[in-house]
User: What shape does this take?
Amino acid sequence: VHRCILAEASPFFKQMFSLPQGDLGECGGEDINIPVIEVSESAEVVDKLLRLVYPREDPPIDSLDELSALLAAAMKYEMQRATETLRRLLVQPRFAAADPTRVYAIACRHDLEPEARAASAYTLRVNILDCPLSEDLKHITAWSYHRLLDLHRRRATAALAALDEAVSPPGEGESEVKCAQCTASHYGSLCPPRWWLEFARRAREELRVRPTSEVVFSMRFLAESSHTGCQRCPGSILESHAFLERLKDRIDALPSTI
Assistant: This one.
């Protein structure tokens, strides 16, 4: 690579080039007329790092292992353009949605607060206590991990409160959640329909570990909540779509990042 491009891309190398050079190197058993400096990164990491700063197409980065190593090297050598490119890649859905806890750990390890916040929102979709351990978690502080746990706890508490407040208790007005059969007068019109009781029970279990609306308002989850023995409950769920959409919007509006 050209020294001028490397110096422009990295203040680290720019300063190094201004210092007295070391001994001449050896390549393939023959002396070469340029100094050689050992680096700790692998050849693969150095190759892709240089491609990121050179005026050419960026190299493909297919795994978090690769991205994490490249990001560490880019920050070590103060390569701003490469670092910015890698930071954008880190929070792309193909990485952040696939392994959000690990992406969060990588961001925290390098003090990348915007990326940590973005990754924390993706972690709401998973049970973070069941996520596989990764080497990246070894490099973050207890404070960083506690922030993530606290986000899940606070959002789960708020989501459960929204669920509990969604249906008017008996004696506090007529509820819009009804069923033509199981809330008819001869069944007790002040009681919520069976589908709602089943939905709320299952939703509480889900929201405690994954405090996001993605699962509990999915068609599959709603369909399974209609298996109550009441023939009219499935139709009642469809008729309650406006109510369910408002409840979903309320949960979606809760704070979703650290």
Summary: The chain has a mean pLDDT of 89. The longest strand covers residues 30-35. The longest helix spans residues 142-164.
